[in-house]
Amino acid sequence: MTKAEVIAEIAEKTGIDKADVSATVEKFFEVVRDTMAKGDNIYVRGFGSFVNKKRARKVARNISKNTAIIIDEHFVPSFKPSKEFVKMVKESEVLKPAAVEAK
């Protein structure tokens, strides 16, 4: 599902104009980006957490040049779904047949 499809579905379910929903969704993403860029995390009860995860300093290899590269310690944005969210996805009747076919 794309962002446009999400906006269309929210507009349909709430009766709010698509332009207003679009502006709200864009501002939500802006707040998430700005907050995480400042080093803060966002916790949405029942949905999940947007957190900055710390990656330790490590030595990697440039295979084409056969040299070692040092990658400094850094942070990456991450999303951790809530237990309720995970449970809902695991128990989804739509996804269960797909999981059985994948085995």
Descriptive overview:
- This protein is α+β, with helices and mostly antiparallel strands and 103 residues long.
- The protein is 46% helix and 28% strand.
- It has two domains: 1-40; 48-103, no CATH class.
- It has helices spanning 3-14, 18-37, 83-90, 96-102; strands at residues 42-44, 48-55, 58-62, 67-71, 74-81.
- The strands form two sheets. A three-stranded antiparallel beta sheet has the order 1-2-5. Strands 3-4 form a two-stranded antiparallel sheet.
- A hairpin with a 4-residue loop joins strand 3 (58-62) and strand 4.
- Helix 1 (3-14) packs across helix 2.
- The two termini are 25 Å apart.
Residue-averaged pLDDT? 92
Could you describe the largest sheet, including whether it forms a barrel? Answer: 3 strands, antiparallel
**Oligomerization:** single chain
| Low-confidence blocks of residues | none
Number of strands: 5
Helical percent range?
Answer: 40-55%
Number of helices: 4
Tally of separate domains = 2
So what's the overall shape?
A: extended
Rg over alpha carbons: 20 Å
Strand order of the largest sheet: 1-2-5
Give the structural class.
alpha+beta
Order of helices and strands: HHEEEEEHH
